Amino acid sequence: MRRYLEKIQDFRLLPLFVIVSMAVGIAIGKIYSISNFQLTPPIDAIKSIFHGTYQFSLPNSLVLGVVLGLFLMIYPAMTNVKVEDLGKAAKSPKQLLLVLFFNYLIAPFFMLLLAKLFLAGNKDLYVGLVLYGLAPCIAMVIVFTVLALGNNVLAIVLVAINSILQMILIPVYAKLLLGNISFDVLVVGESVLLYLGIPLVAGFVTRKIALRKFGEEGFKSFKTYLDSLSIIGLLFTLIVMFALKGDLILQKPMVILQMAIPMAIFFWVMFAVVYLVGWKFGLNYEDSVAVAFNSTGRDFEIAIAIAITAFSPAVALATVVGPLIEVPVMLVLVWAARNSRERLFEKVPLKVALSIPEVAFNVPLFKKVLIPTDFSRHGEHLLGCIPDLKNAGTEEVVLLHVIDPIKIVHWTDILAGIDGQAVKEIKEEVRRELEKIALKTKLDQKIIIKYRVEVGLSYQEILRVAREENVSLIIMGSHGRSFMKGAMLGSVTENVLRHTNIPLLIEKFKFIETEDNLICQRICEEMFGRILYPTDFSDSSLSALSVLKQLKRAGAREVVAAHIQDTRKLLPHLANKMDKFNKTDTDRLGEIKKQLESIGYRVKTILRDAIPFVEINKIAKEEDVSVIVLSTKGKSAVEETLIGSVSEKIARRHIRPVLLIPVDGRV
């Protein structure tokens, strides 16, 4: 189940899910001719349910589906929020001023201008478009910010401020732009409560209860289900919205097109301008995205409610069409923002980016090391890394074995519960085995050794013990075979990789089959002899570059510095600029070579055009390197998971040992 939920969160698959959801919605609308029915506004529908007067029908149930879908979208994002973070985000005057300026002094008048340019001949569509531009969004922009890996806490603060202001300003703007119209101002307050207040409270309560029951680590695992719920809510909302007007889309596509052109221009122009202004003002990527989406998204819920109560059905139709255009366009903007991040926010001037931070040579690099073992062949051979690590300053090794109680119980006996006595006996057996290994290693390697046996989910226990022991490196293997139940498998290494903020060394082994036995050997006997250093010249790669300097004391002699021009991004659209890119990056590699040679390395540089993770492993084999040292780009806003996809793919497919240095971790 968890694997499928993680697939749902895969941003690369989201366009496919969105297209399928839109198609399903249109099909439902066509089959049942839903747009022919008189729809009840969502808030009125909820009131009538409590009063016992609601008439259940497919169209009216779909209206309630919008409410449910929006709740499912926003509620998971609210569980990420800490009260103290809201206080910090509220103290962001530059971000707040940008949002207020664009939302209330630019957006309504820009939408009015577009209505005059494109819809002056159609009064109903004209009024609908102007209405749509009146109020900033108070719901879905939070989800778009999360999908774009922006600052969701800031987004929530900005949405809350917009919610208060629009209750005061919408009547003023409606009269200014559309003349004397009458509608219940309470509709605005009710929308804020329904679409923002309830999910916010539910998120806070869920977080508080979950943290008390599961703890921080358990809650992170639980969050996988919640984050998937957000995507499911988005797709469900798309189905519902397109179902409401599915038949109309097929019967009167020109109405959709008439609204689509000015609205698409509005969203693209507003987002691009605010995003670039945030960049120019020195905001980081996360804040720029949050500000841009908060200034771009419109409150279609309030627009629809006002249109239904104060205008003709044709005007209401125009506002209902709005979200059918807004949601797909905003998802495209999410994609555009994520793809522009590196170009705008992570590139820095050459000399600054390639300066190796000052690092004291007399400070041990990996003073204390954690080695989880599963008693497999490769698990035992991890101890063969100790001599190289001692050269790097390692003084103490912690051996760890984790007993997963679920894995020592047959699936048919799970309902009967876990036998505590059986776990205790296994724990004692493992302790005796670890004690033997620790004593032998201490005598052979002349190093301080301690051992621990823990019970729980393997990767979570590894991360917990690493923090408790304050280790500076975790060493694991990429595969495992074990004679013990509950043994650590490759999936455990992958989970540690995805969640750790401590440097992680993933060893590589080869199995040589003889007539009598299967021999396990490390791929490289000298760990730091010849290092492959892949770089993208971003700030994040500095973490790995600084480690190279410290590895000199471990006997490191040679570095192969490589940069791969990603042909998937550059070709064919930027083919005419490849020569310029290659010249710039050749100079950068030259700067790296110069600085590393100054501290005693022999350096070779490689520049190629290819798919990065494929070519890096190819270079590792060609150059016969002993280890690949690279940084990970950090963690996403949705879940603690690697977003440096190249680093992750290299680690998963590595043909040489890989040393991963988290950007936001400790070395």
Structure at a glance:
The protein is about 60% helix and about 10% strand. By secondary structure, the protein is an alpha/beta fold.
What does this structure look like?
With 667 residues, this protein is of the alpha/beta class. The chain has 3 domains: 336 residues, Na+/H+ antiporter like fold, CATH 1.20.1530.20; 136 residues, HUPs (Rossmann fold, 3-Layer(aba) Sandwich); 133 residues, 3-Layer(aba) Sandwich (Rossmann fold), CATH 3.40.50. It has 26 helices and 12 strands. A 10-stranded mixed beta sheet has the order 3-2-1-4-5-12-11-8-9-10, with helices on both faces. Strands 6-7 form a two-stranded antiparallel sheet. Helix 19 links the parallel strand 2 and strand 3. The protein is elongated.
Number of domains: 3
| CATH-level-2 architecture of the largest domain | Up-down Bundle
Query: Spatial order of the strands in the main sheet?
Result: 3-2-1-4-5-12-11-8-9-10
Shape: elongated
What is the overall pLDDT average? 79
Instruction: Kindly report the CATH topology of the largest domain.
Output: Na+/H+ antiporter like fold
Give the % helix: 55-70%
Rg result:
29 Å
Count of alpha/pi helices: 26
Main sheet summary: 10 strands, mixed
List keywords for this structure.
alpha/beta; Rossmann fold; 3 domains; two-stranded antiparallel ribbon
Summarize the topology.
Layout: H1 2-8, H2 14-32, H3 42-51, H4 58-78, H5 83-90, H6 93-119, H7 123-132, H8 140-147, H9 152-178, H10 186-244, H11 246-251, H12 253-280, H13 285-296, H14 300-310, H15 313-346, H16 350-353, E1 368-372, H17 377-381, H18 386-391, E2 396-403, H19 420-445, E3 448-455, H20 458-468, E4 473-477, H21 490-499, E5 504-507, E6 509-513, E7 518-522, E8 530-534, H22 541-551, E9 558-566, H23 567-570, H24 578-597, E10 602-610, H25 612-622, E11 627-632, H26 645-652, E12 658-662
Parallel strand pairs: 1-2, 1-4, 2-3, 4-5, 8-9, 8-11, 9-10, 11-12
Antiparallel strand pairs: 5-12, 6-7
Helix pairs in contact: 1-10, 2-10, 4-8, 4-10, 5-9, 6-7, 6-9, 6-12, 6-13, 7-15, 8-9, 8-13, 9-10, 9-13, 12-13, 12-15, 14-15, 20-21, 25-26
